[in-house]
Give the backbone structure.
Amino acid sequence: MKLSETEMDGVFEAVTEPYVDHRGAFGRLFCCDELRAAHCDRPIKQINHSRTSAKGAIRGLHFQRAPKAEAKWVRCLKGKVFDVCVDLRKDSSTFLKWHAVELDAERWNTILIPEGFAHGFQVLEPESELLYLHSEVYSRELEGGLRFDDPRLAIPWPVPASDVSDRDREHPLIDRSFEGISL
């Protein structure tokens, strides 16, 4: 696995170099020894899988507050997505800045999004599937969200939004009172 840090402190991209032969391909999804520099011995407490049917659909931007703030490894198993994380860490030099990476099942790449970030994605190929490894269990009481179309973030989604849940459309816009989250 090749591990590279992004311009956002704590956000990493890992690319697996699969073994390919006439039967297909094999590659690691996760290896604590190879990813120690990024993973920092966080536990894996929950694993989720999503399938999104429509090209252009957007899920997110979601986050969890302390004490259930979570880091997550996100990998595209089928299709392709535009994956976005937004830094919500109160005292971060990149507060309210975002980073995006195209996760592609054919590239075998994964993104590590640390605690204190919101996460969302847009589907670029129909029937795309993601696998998430979480360092914490989900807590409805500590969940928050940002609007995908918040002008303060100005995320340039690659294709027009075709399907966004009512819940995600109703997240509040960021205003002057938003101070970020503490970990």
Remarks:
- Residues 2-169 form a domain with the Jelly Rolls fold (CATH 2.60.120.10).
